[in-house]
Amino acid sequence: MSYYLGLTQLIGIHTLLGLSAYILMLTGQLSLGQAGFFAIGAYSAGILTVIFELPILPALLAGAFIAAFFAFFVGFPALRVKGLMLVVATIAFGEFVRLFFFNLSWRVPRGDIEVGPDSTNGFREIRYFVANGWSAWEITAFVWIFVILVMAVLWWTDRSRAGAVLRAVGEDELAAQSVGINLTAVKVAAMTAGGFIAGIGGALYAHTATYIDHLTFTVLLATFAISYPILGGLSSVFGTLVAVIFIQGVLVEGLRFLGDWRNIVFGLLIIAAMNLKPSGLFDPRTSQLLKRAVGLGGGE
Amino acid sequence: MSDFLLEFVEITQTIGDGLFFGTTYALIGIGFSLIFGAMRKLNMTYAAASLAGAYVGLAAFTFVNAPAPVVFLISAFASGLVGGVVYITCFRFIPINNHLAALMASIGALFFIDEIVVHTTDGSPLTFPAMFDDVMFELGPYGIRGDLLFVFAVCIAGTVGLLYVLYRSRLGLATRAVSQQDVAAQLCGIDVHRTNAVTFMLAGLLGGIAGAMTAASVGVLSPLITVPLTVKGLIVSVIGGLGSIPGAIVAGLLVGGLENVFLYFRGVNERDMYVLLLLFVFLVFRPNGIFGSAIERD
């Protein structure tokens, strides 16, 4: 049972990671740096609960705000460039963050042991949940409260003026600019919001995993982050959730019998999916067909 | 000699070594630029394909004990072949204006190739043959490593060869025509897909040389090099101005030289962080790179 609870937590955390890329993709920007914001959230929250002995909730929010802060500052120089150049800039940012934590050593004595990030050896002592006697059920519920909150806020944003502005920038920058939308403000706001969401995800990840090191936050994780919204399509936040359940729940778990060869299959699946459905597995047409098949909203 | 002079010699020596090694970055950067120039798309698989070529060469070294020059040649041609396969699987059938899908597909191919390498070698570094690694030239207070000089010469020869093909052959004419205006090129009877495939193979050939030279000058080949080499190649092509070949050459030497300066002052663990910061400095002050045009932004 605890295995499935762990999987449920992982799906929730990866949904947050995917949504952080999703909000940025609404504005037509692709970032391969989401793993960097995820890492900042994970390390900041971990340091706050372990070294400063804060409770989980303030530590988590602080982690999210720190990640958002860095996203804000990365946003300005990085968003001066568009499209593929932004991909390069964000990859570089993600790698920079990973190397920073690769070098970060901040050990403080706690009782008769030392705790804190230990550069290449990773950050091992994030035991807030264990130390406070949380059950696996409670941890899972805690993770999913944040997932549902973020999804609700994004769903509501999509139905407000802000959502229309985001999508307008994503559809056609020139048209958006000519109706008086401040492109830089919108893009940096989306970047900051993405950083905040990735920060929450990272903070939750650090505390459920109890151990993090720089190898967790590689380009592979950033690729996962963007592959969820790409596969799930941009028509709604539920696409990302479905894509995470499909990849983490069905593919990664379903292919467990392949052992180490799983990642090779993952690469091949991305290539196949992009060749067969270049606009995402759940592009508007497919999701319309799916909706009609299950008898929802077929009247258009 | 005074302490100051000694330190000066040491630093200039370091920069010189970096410039020699920087030619491999220049080659990878040229490869990214060549493909970007032809299709306006990023081929994320490029560095991985280059190292895959070097691994094929290494297999020839391990199993039939091929001499080093043959190993280098096999590496180049294998990488060219991989380049062609990458074109067919990740670019040929994806709509021309869908940049995201091609990018994702090539990232998929990057992990695919990387995983195959990790599986066949168990992820452990393997010794790669070098040439002239026991030669050392003395030039006043400086020493020039023979193997680095060889790497430098081969990379320069590769670049000159590429420029010759691009500007003095019908194939190069077709490549340049497609990169300027693919519809017009098609109207002139140029087969765009075939030309693009050849461009990918050409870039792959160059990448294979760079991969083999990187491995030869480091002495080992390891899957751990893949992502750093990809990132550095991308940085070089962005700093040089995406799509610009002279820019990639200058930026490659710049990154190679500065990398060794960072290595000298800050150590191996922090070196790459400063190279990445260099990219951000360029993004803030000169987002189009050294040789990029101001109007044509992507």
How are strands sequenced across the largest beta sheet of chain A?
A: 1-2
Largest sheet of chain A: 2 strands, antiparallel
Largest beta-sheet details of chain B: 2 strands, antiparallel
Mean pLDDT of chain B: 87
Along the chain, the helix and strand elements of chain A come as: HHHHEEHHHHHHHHH
Query: Can you tell me the residue ranges of chain B where pLDDT is under 50 for at least 5 consecutive residues?
Result: none
Largest chain-chain contact?
Answer: A-B, 43 and 45 residues
Strand elements of chain B, count: 4
Count of individual domains of chain A = 1
Q: What general form of chain A does the structure show?
A: globular
Count of helix runs of chain A: 13
Mean pLDDT of chain A: 87
Strand order of the largest sheet of chain B: 1-4
Stated plainly, the CATH topology of chain B is called ABC transporter involved in vitamin B12 uptake, BtuC
Distance between the termini of chain A: 43 Å
Q: What proportion of the residues of chain A form beta strands (DSSP E)? A: under 5%
Question: How would you spell out the order of helices and strands of chain B?
Answer: HHHHEEEHHHHEHHH
Main traits of this protein?
heterodimer, A: mainly alpha, 13 helices, 2 strands, B: ABC transporter involved in vitamin B12 uptake, BtuC, two-stranded antiparallel ribbon, 11 helices, 4 strands, 4% strand
What would you say about this model in short?
The complex is a heterodimer of chains A (300) and B (298). Chain A is an all-alpha fold.
